[in-house]
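Response to reviewer comment R2.3. The reviewers asked that we include at least one raw input/output pair. We reproduce the pair for Branched-chain amino acid ABC transporter permease here without editing.
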Amino acid sequence: MTQQTPSNRVAQGFGRQRYTWLDAALLAAAVLTFFFGEYYLALAAMVVLMIIFALSLDLAQGYGGIETLGHAAFFGTGAYAAALYALHVSSEPISGLLVGAAVAALVGLLSGFAILRTHGLTQLMLTLAVATLLYELANVMKSVTNGDDGLTGYDISPVLGMFNFDIYGKTAFVYSCVVLLVIYALLKRLVNSAIGLTAQGIRENRVRMRMLGVPVERRLWLLYTLSAAVAGVAGALSAQINRIVGLDTLMFMMSANVVVMLALGGLGRLYGAFLGAIIFVVLSDRAAAVDPTNWLAVLGVVLILVVRYAPQGVSGWLVNLGRKRRSS
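Raw output as returned:
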């Protein structure tokens, strides 16, 4: 394994995220999926919303260095907020996304006040505690969330008043892709901004950035809140597409899954969220179809191989491969 020098790590950590051939390849894959994967559009829509969820974690952990095992708190909050909004206020989907993002951002803002004052294992446990508390709250408030039975009975209006959600998943897939495109463009701009670059500096050396006059706590608080908002959008999308919100959206397994996605795809590159979510969801679906009992073993073997031979994830492996080809 090639060891990175400190200068290489700094260059990688503060490199600007530009649009590359990989962006074009991902866009082409989405177009081809829509036209030639008509029987898999529902699965593809699930992949897209999980990419958004993984992007939210990458923003917090990959760029800000915020350790978390409770990111499902924001996914589930966004999902329940969007579903309750559709049930009691309006079934219009775009405003539902904004409500899901706003409520999740509020949870991130409030919980971040305590979480971001800690580090390491304590921070991990606090994020897990927040998600667990929200899970128990949703379970207790059965009159609002319907508990284990899941929140159902709400309708989602056609997108822009024209595109109905169909059983084939065409509208859901295109709708999710458009939302992903908007979020990805915004995050690309954010991580290249002063906020994103200083957040990476905080991740690398918090003391040095504080000595340079950067408001470390406020910067991380902002990043964590934005990350929560993006996760809330993913949860709201899930509620709108699936027409049901269950307690599983707040479970530890949801948080663990998105951590595995980033481990597969790679942290701190944005592309890692795409590659990791695609590998995780598609591989899980195919493995479960072949062996519904032992499908997790397949995922475990793939994760071990990636951690062993591509510790920076698939995206990091692709970057290193490109560098080797250019230098040869």
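The first helix runs from residue 6 to 13. The two ends are 17 Å apart (CA to CA). Further pairs are available on request from the corresponding author.
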